[in-house]
Amino acid sequence: MILSHLRTGPVHGYELKRKVSATTAFTLNNNTLYPALRRFEESGAVRKTAVQQEGRPPRHVYELTADGREQLHDMIVELPVGYGVPADGPDVYRNFVVPLNLTDDKWVRAIELHPSARTVVHHVLFFADTSGAAREADAADPEPGFPGMGGRRWRNAPLGGWALGTQPHMYPDGVALPLRKGSDLVFQYHFHPSGKPETERSVIGLYFADKAPARTLTGIQLPPLFGVFAGIDIPPGQKDFRVRDSFVLPVDVDAVATGAHAHYLGREMKLTATLPSGEQKTLLWIKRWDFAWQDRYYFKDFVTLPKGTRLDAEVAWDNSADNPDNPSDPPTRVTWGEQSTDEMGAVGLQVLPHVESDLATLQDAYRQHVRQAMMSGGISGFRNAIGAIRRSGGR
Q1: Which of 34, 44, 157, 298 sits CB 3.0–4.6 Å from 128 for a disulfide?
Q2: 290/22 Cα distance (integer angstroms)
Q3: Cβ proximity of 294 and 166 under 8 Å
Q4: Omega before 142 within 30 of 0, i.e. cis
């Protein structure tokens, strides 16, 4: 969105903010605009020039470089209509469908989402639906979109997501996600009422690769399903509640990116890799979790992890009165759930198999890991999962 407003020529920051506000539902402030411009400048997409002014400090203007023009969105879409989020009440999970009318397969390098009601948007997940079932569910509901979480009623392919603090990132060269012709884009929102009514109508930019990648990106999340089967049951006052999970890679992979997720009580997230040689690599270590900063982190260079590498994930929560982010005063028992005042937690790793033919072996091994987590989670884990489905409307 920022780059598109530099298409016509050099622009100074104030004018750029005005143009964005005038043409979208999104309002930029200095804390959003200038860090984004700095990242574009560092990546070579934007050039900053100081223009001299008589009797005044130089004024900086920004313009696109040749690389920046190549990074412009290939497609910009908007939610069909605004959705009204109530002032109070429980969190809301809502899916919105955007028909893309693609006549050819595309390969997505990035999706950039700008919510218009940022204060109530907890996170957004992106999916591609090739079945048409999501569109039918939308049409059957009298309100915009339809309720639920996950894609149980429609065939979906995950395309990433957005959460507080997320910055738009382009996948490295040779890495992209499939978006099949005829697909509808589905945005699954988690809304958390803020105390006043809000209307959400996001603007979304898509970036496409020139060709299909040679290797398929896949994800490993530890513990699986954001810890639904991990026994998250945090007593009031407990300062250091931890959950751990491990997974051994059955094939050689290249690690591309990592990230984590938790709610307000989250405190520490860590992911390490112990290689067959005994060497240990720290892939992610968030020592002070910030609910408002949930970015994905891309390795400067792919991290090679050979077959037999053990991934160890650890997530910690603080449910004491000393935690300034604790939403309960005094602290109360907190268990797994989708409400922002509930908890969940996991660390994720995106990887490419060294050899594309190893993809099935890797995915089968991870599915078996998920099944084992389900079995070890016992009755409480299944109650968490069933309760999540019912509360989200996805019966």
Answers
A1: 157
A2: 32
A3: yes
A4: no
Q: Which residues of 296-327 are buried (b: 16+ CB within 10 A; e: fewer)?
A: bebeeebbebeeebebbbbbbbbbbeebeebe
**Architecture (CATH level 2) of domain 218-392:** Sandwich (2.60)
Q: Which residue has the tokens 């929560």?
A: 317
Dist. CA 395–CA 387, nearest whole Å: 10
CA 362 – CA 370 distance, rounded (Å): 13
Domain span(s) for CATH 2.60.120.230 in the chain: 75-208, 218-392
Query: What would the CATH number be for the domain defined by 3-70?
Result: 1.10.10.10
Q: Are 201 and 78 contacting, i.e. CB atoms less than 8 angstroms apart?
A: yes
State pLDDT tens for residues 289-304.
988 787 889 999 999 9
Q: Are 127 and 220 in contact (CB under 8 A)?
A: no
The residue type of 158 is P
Residue 179 has which token pair? 């978006």
Q: What is the pLDDT of residues 1-50, one digit of tens each?
A: 666 667 667 887 778 777 766 655 456 677 777 887 887 888 788 888 88
Amino acid type, 146: F
Please give the structure tokens belonging to residue 304.
């090679």
Residue 91: what are its φ and ψ, rounded to 5°?
-60, 150
CATH of 75-208, one of 2.60.120.230, 3.10.310.30, 3.30.565.10, 3.40.50.1010: 2.60.120.230
Structure token digits, residue 232: 């998250």
What is the per-residue pLDDT across 250-292, written as a single tens digit (0 to 9) for each?
Answer: 999 999 999 999 999 999 999 999 999 999 999 999 999 988 7
Whether the pLDDT of residue 394 is over 50: the answer is: no
